[in-house]
Amino acid sequence: MDDSVGAIAPEVASILAAARERGGGGERVAADARSLPAAFERAESEGRVPLIAEIKPTSPTTEGARTDDPVALAERMVEGGAAALSVLTEPDHFGGSARTLERVREAVDVPVLRKDFVLHEAQLDVVEADVILLIVRFLEAEGTDDLGDLVAAARDRGFQVLVETHTEAEVERAIEAGADIVGVNNRDLAQLEVDLGTFERVSEAVPESVTLIAESGIHTPEDVRRMRRAGADALLVGSAIMDHGADTDVAANTRRLTNAETETQT
C-alpha cells in the first residue's frame, strides 16, 4: 500500500470503522480550556522540553497493557515535568474512556488533550477537554472536506485544536482549515512504519507562527534533541513513557525526556 491520500493500514482501518460507529455524548460541551501554548512556554522558561505525555493503556502497535490507575500515572507524569497530558478516550483499540479523561483533568493543573478519532461534529460533545485531536488522514479517508468546519465547531465549544498531519500536503490542508497547532506524526498510517525523518521533512512546510508538535517514535533523549533541532515546539510521547507491560516509573521516564536539553550529554 502506498502513501497516497486516504491509504491506511488494516489496523488503522479497524480503528476508523469503530470511530465511524460511535456517536456523540448528546448535550453540547462547553470547555474552559487551559492554554497549551502557554504550558509549553512555561516549560521552556523552567528549562524543560515541552512534552505531552500520553496515558495509553494499550494500542494496536504495542504489546501488553498498563493497568495502573490513570490518575496516579497522570500525577507521576506531571511530577516528571510533562507540560501537558494526552488521554486516550477510544475504548475499542486503546482501552480509553471519557471518564478516564474527566478523572485525570480533575487531578492535574496542566492542559489535557482528548486523544480520539473524531469524524463528525457530534463526536466533539463527549467530554470537556483542553485540546481536541483532528487527524487529516482520517477525515480524508472518510471522503469529507469538513476539517475547517470541525476546527471551527471545536473552537466554538472552547476547545483548542491539534490537527495531526503526516505530509506536506496535509500540512497545507491543516493551515487552510485555520489550524494554529499542528502535529506531524512520524508514523505512516498507511504502513505503520515510523521514521523520524518524516518530521524533519514535513516541518519545513509549517509556518513559524504555528505551534508545532512532533509525534510518534520518540524514545530517547537524542530523539528529543533531534526533533527539537528540526523545529519542534513540543513532543507527544506515549509508549516510551508508559512502557507497556512493565511496572516502570513513568515519572523517571518523563523526566529523562523533559531534561534532554539540560542534562550533561555524554
Which secondary structure elements does this structure contain, and how are they paired or packed?
Elements: H1 10-21, H2 36-45, E1 51-55, H3 70-79, E2 84-88, H4 91-94, H5 98-107, E3 112-115, E4 131-135, H6 136-141, H7 147-156, E5 160-165, H8 168-176, E6 181-185, H9 197-202, E7 211-215, H10 221-229, E8 234-237, H11 239-242, H12 250-258
Parallel strand pairs: 1-2, 1-8, 2-3, 3-4, 4-5, 5-6, 6-7, 7-8
Report on the structure:
The protein is an alpha/beta fold and 266 residues long. The chain has a single domain (10-258), classed as Aldolase class I (TIM Barrel, Alpha-Beta Barrel). The protein contains twelve helices and eight strands. The protein has an eight-stranded parallel beta barrel with strand order 1-2-3-4-5-6-7-8, surrounded by seven helices. Strand 1, helix 3 and strand 2 (84-88) form a beta-alpha-beta unit. Helix 3 crosses helix 5. It starts with 9 loop residues before the first helix and ends in an 8-residue tail after the last helix.
Q: Mean pLDDT, as a whole number? A: 90
Largest sheet: 8 strands, parallel, barrel
Number of helices: 12
Q: Could you tell me the strand content as a percent range?
A: 5-15%
Output the helix-strand order. HHEHEHHEEHHEHEHEHEHH
Residues in helix, %: 25-40%
Count every beta strand, where a strand is a DSSP E run of 2 or more residues.
Answer: 8
Question: How many structural domains in the coordinates?
Answer: 1
**Shape annotation:** globular
Q: CATH homologous superfamily name?
A: Aldolase class I
Low-pLDDT stretches are 1-5
Radius of gyration: 17 Å
Structural class: alpha/beta
| Sheet with most strands: strand arrangement | 1-2-3-4-5-6-7-8
Mind telling me the CATH class? Alpha Beta
